[in-house]
Amino acid sequence: MSTRHLSFVETGRSRPSPELVLAIAHHLEVPLRERNSLLLAAGYAPRFSQRSLDDAEMAPMRASVQRLLDAHQPYPGVVIDRQWNVLLANDAAVALLTGVPPELMGPPLNVYRASLHPNGLAARTLNFTDWAAYLVQQLRRSATITGDPALEALLAEVLAYPNVAQIRPLLDLAEWDDPPLLVPFRFASPLGEVSLFTTLTTFGTPRDVTLDELAIELFYPADDRSDRLLRDLADASPSVRGAATR
Hints:
- By secondary structure, the chain is α+β, with helices and mostly antiparallel strands.
- It folds into two domains: about 5-40, no CATH class; about 55-235, Beta-Lactamase.
- The chain has helices spanning about 5-10, 20-25, 30-40, 60-70, 90-95, 110-115, 130-145, 150-160, 160-165, 210-215, 225-235; strands at about 75-80, 85-90, 185-190, 190-200, 215-220.
- The protein has a five-stranded antiparallel sheet with strand order 2-1-5-4-3.
- A hairpin with a 2-residue loop joins strand 3 (about 185-190) and strand 4 (about 190-200).
- The N and C termini lie far apart (about 45 Å).
- The model is unreliable at about 240-245 (pLDDT under 50).
């Protein structure tokens, strides 16, 4: 493609082909949802489906991620969508939410709301300033990249929480005298302090909007003591899978 033709497309003098729209979106790493929007704006039909995770065609993917969550026991694991609503969770993740009031449990259960609301996990988070700084930065980035009105509204909501508003000047300045390798999530469990770090996994070659926006968040113990406590907590907790999913 010549730079002249691209210039004509940019200024509206030429209409792009659907292949050109998709090529530009691919190189700019535009999410599938927005690629559909670009195609519609150019006068073409969307190319990427959007099925519910409960759809029959999604059964193999749903079963695969559930197996991953089950295998991750006794450590917490959840499947989240683009707005960080929990779609699936293992027993360890649900047990982590014990004591969170029903109004914060959804449906849908939202990770940011449950983690940052003063009546949620924030009340048991021992390094709230550091953990809140990580979560707010992540939410801001997601809202900026996607332009999703729901994410922008969620960001405004959590920034208005009194505990978040109180530390807001520190959210972008969180520092450590001895910086850790990762920002841990440290919370007070019935058996003592547990420290976790988190990973995010996504599908490698999605062709569906839902799959493109799914992420699997897995928590791991940050030290041997936390590992032992998580195993003890799992032994003491009944199976409650599904209580926190929509």
